[in-house]
Amino acid sequence: MKSARSQSSRMHTPTKAPTGIVGFDEITGGGLPSRRTTLLMGGPGSGKTIFALQFLVHGAQHRKEPGIFVAFEESSKRIVANAESFGWNLADLRRKKLYFMDAQPMADMVQSGNFDLSGMLAALDAKTREMGTRRIVIDALDVVLALLPDATAKRREVYRLHEWLLERELSGIITAKADGDETSSFSQQPFGFMQFMVDCAVILNHSVVMGVSQRNLRVQKYRGSSFDENESPFLIGTSGLEVDATRTLGRVNAKVSNERVSSGVERLDTMLGGGYYRGASVLITGFPGTAKTTLAGAFAAAACARSERTLFVSFDSDSNEVVRDLASVGIRLDRYQKNGCLRMASARTITGSAETYLVRIKTLATEHAARCLVIDPMSTWSKSGNDSNAHSVAERLTDWSKANGITLVCTSLLDEMSSQTEGGSSSLQISTLADTWIQLSYLMQAGERNRGLSIIKSRGTAHSNQVRELVLSDSGVTLADTYTAGGEVLMGTLRWEKESAERVANEVKEVATRLKRVKLDAEEAELEVRVKSLQVELQAKHVEKALMIQTTKSREGELSRGRTRMEELRGADVPIPGRK
Amino acid sequence: MKGHPLFKFRLYVAGDALNSAQARVNFSAICRAHLLDRHEIEIVDVFREPKRALADGIFMTPTLIKLTPAPVRRIVGTLSQMPIVLQALGLEDQAI
User: Burial letters for A473-491: b for 16+ Cβ neighbours within 10 Å, e otherwise?
Assistant: First the structure.
């Protein structure tokens, strides 16, 4: 029972020895197998020595695990000199925690008959006890194996070494040259059996595709551990190897945000219903000269104005040129550059693989703690031999920036040859990854080219489906409504002409209306006057009529009264009825 | 045979491993045949004196070092191929 518990507690001691190589520990879930042997294979110049040395340096520096480097090929002096640029402080480490053993076969050495590596192991034993070594690297074992006369002897020595490593419980790396990148060929090589023997095998691959160097790393086997089985690109950076770990499952923890960030163009924000989403990836495509950079620059300026740290990576032009060019359209980036909010990085893509740039961009963005990232343009990645992996690089960049909540704006050049239509974006096919896709285009009309902007898609956002005209002036970028007349979209001068024609027509119409109104007013007034005079006349007639009636009445009365009076005066008889 | 210089050798062996034992046997035979009474051999066991192996840069065993006369020569292996060994030691004319 007791022993079982101690057994299990031993099982729980860390079984992995971190390598300190960015990304590699993620692929392997913690590093190389601890107290076991790893075989590192690769062609010449594939980075085996640096990988192995970094493993030792990390152990010595951060893990209190002293290490021994057995150099069969290069002299330790040269290895140390070559590694100087990585800032590993080897001179300091060598005093106590790192020992280099020069074991290069001497040039004038004569060999006769069989031999074994007992001498080396005895020497290593002594050194291991003295230093308390935990990690060991046997660099270029193939050099010494090549001296052995037959396959049996080679095999025997490899087993001897392996046994020794296991017995001493050292975390070991054995590096060996391997030609070609096909894994099948390894087993045919004299030391191919090593792959079966060791607990972990890593293959480094350095190939050149259309003149562009591509470095890949693949974990071929790892006993007792899950690992990323795919090839992962890596590069030799300023502080050693950097492996670009493809996002593994469970690491997707993109912070989905409802927050909107301004695109830098007010009308565009309106079109997008408030701007881009934070953490979204935005793609701006268009032909050369359609103001892709300007739009991206506007975004950068807006981000800096909100004091968000921004990284602007320019592949086509020098960063100073970009700043100057953008200043001409009223986007002033220099002040943000000065206060450190904006970092401009320029990277020409004449050489260098997409992978290299990806890792560099990630490093730069991390260093700068960028919240907004502009890549201008991303399409250069697919040039010069990067066709095959540019898409995956773009994908990983998108994923990475999403996972880190970085708002990514990338421009992409549309190739005149490949894509006359909107749909055929680019070989990058990043359009499917982008959350918002803005298309810039030219409209040729009446001897002018005018820039049009439309939103092809914008996930999760209500957006305008109208084409707007993008107007660049020295005061900035504005969007103007295009003019639709008779089923035709008008832009530029035509729009302006049409607009002014419309204005004139409107004015004329207005004047005419006013004139007519005045006239009508006059007529109305006239009529009113006439109505008034007629009314007066009518009144007069009324009066006249009334007067007349009155006069008649009084006359009749007068008449009858007069008659009676006359009769009285005459003393006439009372008239007898029936007699006249 | 007079006037010939004294040969000093050092033979590094790994205990009584097969290769090392073979080298000892082969080398004694060579000495008996060609350098009778004018050689000195020091045998170093790397298991007993690992620091010395480390200091002398001995990684492959067995290794034979001819210290004098100059030039210093190293021969690695069981010393089984006589002509090669003799040539390396500058004794090929005596082999005939």
Answer: eeebbbbbebbeeeeebbb
Q: What is the pLDDT of residues A211-235, one digit of tens each?
A: 667 788 888 889 888 888 888 888 8
Q: CA quadruple A414, A417, A421, A423: dihedral positive or negative? A: negative
Q: Report the gap between the CA of B4 and the closest CA in chain A (Å).
A: 23
Output phi, psi for A189, to 5 deg: -80, 155
Residue numbers in A near B58 (CB within 8 A):
119, 123
Quote the crossing angle between the two packed helices B18-34 and B82-89, to the nearest 10°. 60
The sign of the torsion formed by the CA atoms of B17, B20, B22, B28 equals negative
d(CA B48, CA A467): 87
The tokens describing A558, both together, are 């007068």
Q: Nearest CA to CA, how far is A156 from chain B (Å)?
A: 12
Beta-carbon separation of A114 and B81 below 8 A: no
Residue A148 C-alpha, separation from nearest chain B C-alpha, in angstroms = 9
Nearest CB neighbour to B19, from listed A115, A126, A144:
A115
The tokens for A296 are 């991206």
- Report pLDDT digits (tens) over A256-300: 778 888 888 888 888 888 888 888 888 888 887 788 888 889 999
CA gap A302, A268 in Å, rounded: 13
Residues of B in contact with A116 (CB under 8 A): 14, 17, 19, 60-61
Q: Are A463 and A271 in contact (CB under 8 A)?
A: yes
Looking at the complex, does the CB of residue B81 fall below 8 Å from at least one CB of chain A? yes
The CA distance from A60 to A94, in Å, is 10
Judging contacts by C-beta atoms under 8 Å, the chain B residues touching residue A109 are: 74-76
- Which pTM does this prediction carry? 0.66
Q: How many CA atoms lie within 13 A of A233 on its CB side?
A: 22
The secondary element (H helix, E strand) that includes residue A548 is helix A492-570
B contact residues 49-78, partner A, Cβ 8 Å cutoff: 50-51, 53-54, 57-63, 73-78
Residue in the block written with tokens 């031993």: A10
A544: left (phi over 0), alpha (psi -120 to 50) or beta: alpha
**A491: its two tokens:** 């832009």
Cβ–Cβ gap A119/B81 under 8 Å: no
